[in-house]
Amino acid sequence: MSSSSLSGVFPAVITPFVKGKLTTSAYEKHLHFLKEAGVSGVVVGGTTGEGLALTPDERTHLCSVARDVFGDAPVFMGVNAAHLEEAFMQLQSARMGGATGLLVSPPYYVKPDTQGLQNYFESIHNESDFLILLYNHPGRLGFELSLPLLGNLAHLPRIVGLKESSSSLERILTLKTATSWSLFSGNDGTWPAFLAMGGQGVISVGAGIAPELYVRHWQAWQNQDLATVQKLQETLEKLHRALSLHPNPQAINYMCALKGWGDGSMRLPFSALKAAEKDALSDCMKQLELM
């Protein structure tokens, strides 16, 4: 698979728990729901999947089950580590689980310099035969993957794309010129503008609960049916606002629990939603006819 074939809607999938234990049956049901909606692939074990709270065996299991459900469609596993050896352990879980690729975040907390970041990403690239999407999320990390850094990584053959969660659309124009990467929006609210700047799709939390709406949105964009794009974006903005009121993945976990995928519980440091917050999310789902 090449970067040119990576496009469309990729839900960031939750890890469903029941009383704190990963439940395979709920996970499989959720994945089949996403597949039947026509999504292009999935990302498992990332931020939305509580990747930092998972054991290596759980990471492997998530990848393996997703591979069984999705067959040849891309299954990316989140790699989010504080140092290189930890990243290599996560890479091994992805390898054992049969993942297609990795969604690799910069090391958290330590705020390395540009050369250190370049060495880190190059080391992960050289250690594996996975396709790699890099992840730029300055809101979470406190720093941004600079355009010069990304340009220095563009020659590496298995780094094939970027998930961009900043608010800068100008970056997309620059990256379209400087790289041959597939560029994915990580911000549902600006997705249409991102596509207009040359993006190839979205890696989305909301697509985990409303995949059919996101797929229709993507298809309308492909057909340049801008009236439908606008109408669907207005609908999805209601979902986006509801999800953004809570630290991810609190809201999406509860919404998925309402569909029978887990009990909505999360591992610490996440806490349970209050009753009024649950009611508001339930009302949102009813309004959007998601339940």
Key structural traits:
291 residues; 14% strand; 12 helices; TIM Barrel; alpha/beta; two-stranded antiparallel ribbon
Write up what this structure looks like.
- It contains 12 helices and 10 strands.
- With 291 residues, the chain is of the alpha/beta class.
- It has one domain: Aldolase class I (TIM Barrel, Alpha-Beta Barrel).
- The strands form 2 sheets. Strands 1-10-9-8-7-6-5-4 form an 8-stranded parallel β-sheet.
Secondary-structure topology with pairs:
Blueprint: E1 8-11, E2 17-18, E3 21-22, H1 24-37, E4 42-44, H2 56-70, E5 75-79, H3 84-97, E6 101-104, H4 114-127, E7 131-136, H5 138-141, H6 147-153, E8 159-164, H7 170-178, E9 182-185, H8 191-196, E10 201-204, H9 211-222, H10 226-244, H11 250-258, H12 275-287
Parallel strand pairs: 1-10, 4-5, 5-6, 6-7, 7-8, 8-9, 9-10
Antiparallel strand pairs: 2-3
Please, what is the average pLDDT? 95
Q: Could you name the CATH homologous superfamily?
A: Aldolase class I
Number of strands: 10
The amount of helix comes to 40-55%
Compute the CA-based radius of gyration: 18 Å
The helix tally amounts to 12
The number of domains is 1
* Straight-line N-to-C gap: 36 Å
The CATH class, by name, is Alpha Beta
**Uncertain regions: pLDDT < 50 for 5+ in a row?**
none
Query: CATH topology, anyone?
Result: TIM Barrel
Pattern of helices and strands = EEEHEHEHEHEHHEHEHEHHHH
